[in-house]
Amino acid sequence: AQYKMNNSDKNVKKLREIYPITTNNSPNLKLYIDGDIKGSSVGYKKIEYKFSKDKGQETTLRDYLNFGPSEGENVE
């Protein structure tokens, strides 16, 4: 899934505070998900914020999330 983000989004603002992002472009958020995402989904998911892709120079932040069962749930 891909979403066009806004620079006013709180997550985008936080990324700009933490990392030296030099472009003013709004990012695209891409979610790389295997299978269905449900309340019981487990495993790794990749997220990517792509701020720019200009002539050989790309500004992208990637991270991985590890979803596991909540405490107290039965795991079979």
Automatic annotation (TrEMBL):
The gene is lpl10. Gene3D superfamilies: 2.50.20.40. Keywords: Lipoprotein. InterPro entries: Csa, Csa_sf. Belongs to the staphylococcal tandem lipoprotein family. It comes from the Bacteria. This is Tandem-type lipoprotein Lpl10.
